[in-house]
Amino acid sequence: MMANLGFGTLVIAFLLSIYGVWAAVYGVRGKKPAWVDSARNAMLLSFPLVTLSVITLIILLANGHYEVEYVASVTSNSMPLYLKVTALWGGQPGSLIFWSWLLAAFASAVTLRNWDRDREFLPWVVVVSLATLAFFLGLSIFLENPFARLWQLPAGIITKAMFQPAGGALFFPGDGRGLNPLLRHPGMIFHPPMLYLGFVSFVIPYAFAIASLVTGRSDDRWIRVTRRWTLVAWLFLSLGLILGGRWAYDVLGWGGYWGWDPVEIAAFMPWLTGTAFLHSVMSQEKRGMVKHWNMVLIILTYALVIFGTFLTRSGVLSSVHAFAQSAIGPLFFTFIALTFTISLGLLLHRWQELKSEVQMTSLLSREALFLFNNLLFIGVLLVCFWGVIFPLISELVSGQKVTVGPPFYERANAPLFGGLLLLMGIAPLAAWRHSTGKTLWRAAWKPLLASLVVVGILWAYGTHHIVALIGFWLAGWVAFVTLYEFWRGGLARKRRFGESLPVALWRLAGRNRRRYGGYIIHLGIVFMVLGIIGIEIFQRETQATIPQGGQITLGPYVMTYDALTNFDTKDGRNVSRADVSVFKSGDFVEKIYPQRDYYYDSQQPVTIPGIRSTWEDDFYVLLVDWMALSSQGATFKVFYNPLVNWLWFGGIVFILGTLVAAWPESESELVKPGARVKSSVPSRMR
Amino acid sequence: MSNSGSQMFGRMKFFIGGLIIVTAVVYLIASSTQESAQYFLTIEELITKGDSIVGRNVRISGAIVGESIQYDPQTLDLRFIVADVPADNKEIEAQGGLANVLHAAVTDPTRERIQVVYNGPKPDLLRNEAQAIMTGHMSSDGVFYADELLLKCPTRYEEAIPQQSSG
Predict the structure, then answer these.
(1) Which of A113, A166, A522, A617 is at 20 to 30 A from A209, Cα to Cα?
(2) Which residue of A has its CA nearest to B167?
(3) Is residue A415 less than 8 Å (CB to CB) from chain B?
(4) Which residues from chain A sit within 8 angstroms of residue B94, using beta carbons?
């Protein structure tokens, strides 16, 4: 009954989306505004419909309706309620419908905005959003139906189908298989929705870009309208990536946070083009330049979002080199190819209208530096894309399957990341339009000197690793430039308005949220760089089997194995937990409890580290194995991760900076569209 | 005249700047690919290649033979035997999916097999008929020394539920 209701609303939403696309095109072609309004209503209505379907699925999940195959595959009796609900995105069929639901929510929200100043965009925004929605709903209905049920045929065979097969009777399993234990972690509860929110919200700026291309409106209206959407999309994507890293560190038990796994890269690629886009649109807003390029970036981002959804959810990549394993593979590729070709076709069609208003003249101007920043981001993107598709290419070309691993990405990306950091320090000091080496040097020498002093101090204290020193130098350079910018701006306000320095800084950031929010993001990156240098270059590890009371020494730490306890929990786990005392420089500092949870329902153990965490370093202990009689000993794998906490701290700063930049600014709406820095008043001083 | 000349120069310097970055990216991709490329072979291919592949960094995949698993928790030495499975997905699909292919590989005594040695904690998923994806090298004694071991158990996620339920 419930399953039928959920499936039924899904089908209605699907038909409605197709109708909406048709009505919008028909209305705008035939100049019949009533049809466009009807399309708009269809888009508005898609949200309650998909919501109803999602609620139905959640009810099925929460109440253990195991006759529904999806419910049986991701939940079990012993799981707590919150995990049953979040199992909504624990498998492919559920995550696809979740994706559709988010898209319907955003699309509906967009219809409610005030369209007075850009009425002509409306039908095309509807077309793009609803066509995307129809594609995802279609996948759910025809291929990955979360409501399909289990039926027992007369011959005793169990089969999966939406509707009753001839002679079949509903089959009710007593228990489900349960969510993959690795996914039963707070990080995993928030990580996928954040990533998805990021993915889905990029559809909206793309829809406006396409609307702008179709209608031939060549100003930057679409960018202004979607600026906040883009930032919010980027915020969620960043948050999703950071949470994913934290989850890997806490649960996966290999002492790391990022493994250049194709699935991770799939989420990273739209982030790269999105970041390039966020920088590049400023050149268009301020100077009316690089309009083609911004279109290319948003089109690429959309394609990569769809590609990323496919890669992260279809599971095709967890098998080493399989792309077309699942039935949805070819459909995804067709959809991506189709939308990509149409988008590029539209862009070529409007090529002349989108010519830059001015020429770029100075190599050291802000807009030129943004261009180089973009090239580097695209460089990183190419490295990632090449790494993901290389096995396919080599197989096509040479018939030999060849893969590249993390060393490839690290080696190829490290100099590009270094270049990005270098630019991150130069660009804030450079002026728009025209900037000379001389003026730049006048602003840059102080932060440069300060960063070199830092490197000197590190050298004197015994850090001689050359890559690490370069990394610390770049981090210091960006940090000092950014702080210097705050200082200069604050001081200028103080002099001009007679404010105290804290007030001046607060107002400075408050009045130019985008600029100073961006700088806070840069500072977040600096902190993250410290953490990454710490764990990538200075990580140490060891493993040993020790008897009860035995010790392992690593870096400045000594651990002793005190005891092992074993017990069952109510949620269906058998926990083996070691009591470990941690000593630093001979003093007891903390007791930690590395443990292994064995999940009865999925017959799978999960290794959870015990971590002694400080700003200086993490001491990370995994319980690998133990004897039946605990007195005989246990095996531990131990990591010493210097500075890694700065990575998480930097992530928080990064997100706060994005919030500052995205926070609604009442003034900005008053600025006339198209106002550029042609006037002599520096925008910063407004 | 001089105006158009400086404009030419103006364009030129961006072109050169861009070209430097593009060249750097291409160089980085090409050299890193060469440096870290790993051949992906089936066990049958690995055996056929014989001595020519000894010592080279390769990635192989195979089905784990359950009764061959030996683990010494003192030294963390892990030894097991893997059986040849096809690498081509179409072939896997044609033979009824990964779970069936793995099962067939382990139960078929005529399949090519190799001994694998790995040092490290025993992975949680290591069990009979799991797919092992390993990076490492073949030594001249015919043993594969794995530096990295990834496991995949299709059965747990894909198999129909009925067996374990009471109805």
Answers:
(1) A522
(2) A173
(3) yes
(4) none
Cβ atoms of residues A374 and A438 within 8 Å? no
* HSE value, Cβ hemisphere, 13 Å, CA-based, for B42: 14
pLDDT in tens, A17-46: 999 999 999 999 999 999 999 999 999 999
Whole-prediction pTM value?
A: 0.87
Look up residue A335 and give its two tokens: 């959809």
> Taking each helix axis from N to C terminus, what angle separates A406-426 and A437-460, rounded to the nearest 10 degrees?
130
Query: Is residue A625 within 8 Å of residue A652, measured between CB atoms?
Result: no
User: What pairing do the DSSP bridges indicate for beta strands A634-642 and A540-546?
Assistant: antiparallel
Indicate the average pLDDT of chain B.
Answer: 79
CA distance B70 to chain A (A): 14
Place of tokens 């683990």: B71
For A27, the token pair is: 């209305």
Provide the CA A95 distance to its chain's centre, in angstroms: 16
CB pairs under 8 A between A and B: 159
Q: Where are the alpha helices (DSSP H) in A288-365?
A: 291-314, 328-349
Amino acid at position A641, single letter = N
- Is there a contact between B60 and B45 (Cβ–Cβ < 8 Å)? no
Query: CA A506, CA A513: separation in Å to the nearest integer?
Result: 10
ipTM of the complex: 0.77
Helix spans in A461-611 (H): 466-497, 501-511, 513-538
Q: E strand or H helix at B62, and its extent?
A: strand B58-72
Residue A568, amino acid: D
- Across chain B, which distance is largest between two alpha carbons, in Å? 90
Indicate the Cα dihedral angle A153, A157, A163, A166, nearest 10°: -30
Q: Say if the Cβ atoms of B162 and A603 lie within 8 Å.
A: no
Q: What is the DSSP string of A539-567?
A: -EEEEEEE-TT-EEEETTEEEEEEEEEEE
**Chain A residues near residue B151 by CB distance under 8 angstroms:** none
How many beta carbons lie within 10 A of that of residue A500, not counting itself?
Answer: 10
User: What is the Cα–Cα distance from A272 to A556, expressed in whole angstroms?
Assistant: 38
Q: Please give the distance of CA A492 from its chain centroid, rounded to a whole number.
A: 37
Nearest CA-CA distance, residue A668 and chain B, Å: 33
How far apart CA A281 and CA A289 sit, in angstroms, is 9
Q: Which residues of A408-438 are buried (b: 16+ CB within 10 A; e: fewer)?
A: bbebbbbbbbbbbbbbbbbbbbbbbbebeee
In B, minimum Cα distance to A409 occurs at B32
| Interval A146-193: pLDDT, tens | 999 999 888 888 888 888 888 888 888 888 888 877 777 777 788 888
Structural contact between residues A96 and A144, judged by C-beta atoms closer than 8 angstroms: yes
Q: What are the structure tokens assigned to A381, written together?
A: 């993107």
The pair of structure tokens assigned to B27 is 């160089």
Q: Which residues neighbour A51 within 8 Å (Cβ) at sequence distance 6 or greater?
A: A101, A104, A105
